[in-house]
Amino acid sequence: MIAGDTPFIGASLENNGITARIGNTGHIHPGGLMTVAYNGQKATGKAFYQPVPFWASDDVNVLYPKFHLTENIALFLCPLFWEAGRPYAFENKWGREIMKDGTISLPAGEDGQPDWRVIDSWMMGIRSTARTHLDLLGRFI
């Protein structure tokens, strides 16, 4: 690793998965993706949205969606991955092939496909409410 500013995403359950900042220029993933740790004690299944370009360790799956992933959608999905990864641990890795065979239930439209617009809108409302509550709390601190 070369010292720098690019987030290095490892099998961590803290700091958005960032375990270091590096200056390496190869194997950089673009921002706007999700990462899911499939290895590591207590970190298996921890998912995070990565808003900026990053490097991922070998213990992390980088998810390239087949749909338009917004930050709101990613924030909705993260705890679902956390829950889906609970049965797995350091000795029982939640690797890519096992993940591909799994399912996560999502709100769906009449066609049975995930309704990403509804998910995005719902999370936008949740985040707006949280910001309002934090702003109100800030007035009393």
TrEMBL record:
<keyword id="KW-0680">Restriction system</keyword>
<protein>
    <submittedName>
        <fullName>Type I restriction modification protein</fullName>
    </submittedName>
</protein>
<dbReference type="Pfam" id="PF01420">
    <property type="entry name" value="Methylase_S"/>
</dbReference>
<dbReference type="InterPro" id="IPR000055">
    <property type="entry name" value="Restrct_endonuc_typeI_TRD"/>
</dbReference>
<comment type="similarity">
    <text>Belongs to the type-I restriction system S methylase family.</text>
</comment>
<dbReference type="GO" id="GO:0003677">
    <property type="term" value="F:DNA binding"/>
</dbReference>
<dbReference type="GO" id="GO:0009307">
    <property type="term" value="P:DNA restriction-modification system"/>
</dbReference>
<feature type="domain" description="Type I restriction modification DNA specificity">
    <location>
        <begin position="4"/>
        <end position="121"/>
    </location>
</feature>
<keyword id="KW-0238">DNA-binding</keyword>
<dbReference type="InterPro" id="IPR044946">
    <property type="entry name" value="Restrct_endonuc_typeI_TRD_sf"/>
</dbReference>
